[in-house]
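[step 3/7] inverse_fold.run input=structure_tokens len=110
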């Protein structure tokens, strides 16, 4: 997934699970503190360009948890906008969806 540096990006976890997710722990991989939310959304600003590993850990109401790592490519805002215009993509800057599947709950995935 791609985003721009110095730009607030909303991350949304989409978890395919029949159980209610009770917590989401977000580690953005850029030496900032992990944050815990009870909703599937978190907003983060990457201050520098580069490639980061975002790790998301979810826990359901049975206290089973799973984690998954996502690669986040952070570009300068100018480069990201230019590239999307040249590729003729419809770009929604500032929103990234992360997908996990219910079969992952109860075990760890890297």
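[step 3/7] decode complete -> sequence:
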């Amino acid at each position: 997934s791609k985003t721009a540096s110095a730009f607030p990006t909303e991350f949304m976890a989409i978890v395919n699970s029949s159980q209610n997710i009770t917590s989401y722990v977000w580690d953005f991989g850029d030496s900032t503190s992990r944050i815990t939310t009870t909703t599937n959304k978190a907003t983060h600003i990457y201050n520098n360009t580069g490639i980061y590993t975002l790790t998301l850990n979810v826990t359901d109401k049975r206290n089973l948890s799973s984690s998954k790592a996502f690669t986040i490519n952070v570009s300068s805002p100018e480069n990201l906008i230019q590239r999307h215009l040249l590729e003729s993509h419809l770009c929604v800057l500032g929103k990234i969806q992360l997908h996990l599947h219910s079969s992952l709950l109860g075990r760890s995935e890297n």
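[step 4/7] annotate
The two ends are 17 Å apart (CA to CA).
The chain has one helix and eight strands.
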